[in-house]
Design a protein that fits this description.
It is a single chain. With about 80 residues, the chain is an all-alpha fold. It has one domain: Monooxygenase (Up-down Bundle), CATH 1.20.1280. Helix content is about 80%, strand content about 0%. It has four helices and no strands. Helix 1 packs parallel to helix 4.
């Protein structure tokens, strides 16, 4: 069995689960349900996974976490942008 495929499937599921929330945030411009602490801790954790993936050169970990980081940064930016009154 090719375990890389299992890794990519898991990475796809956990990475792209952010898409519905991103779409909702873009449409409604409401991000109050996301706390700043949650987003910063999540972003830091994803960054650590990305660094680890690069250190061991595991493309499953690198690709999943690089994309997830883009999603987290997008949510952070929108929360900052739309949250200002």
């Amino acid at each position: 069995m090719n375990w890389q495929i299992i890794g990519y499937i898991g990475g796809l599921c956990t990475t792209f689960c952010f898409i519905p929330q991103l779409v909702k945030a873009i449409k409604t411009k409401e991000l109050d349900d996301f706390s700043w602490a949650y987003l910063f801790v999540l972003g830091f954790g994803v960054l650590m996974w990305l660094i680890y993936g690069i250190a061991i050169w595991d493309m499953v970990i690198i690709s999943a976490n690089a994309i997830t980081m883009l999603f987290v940064l997008s949510i952070l930016f929108m929360k900052w942008r739309f949250g200002r009154k």
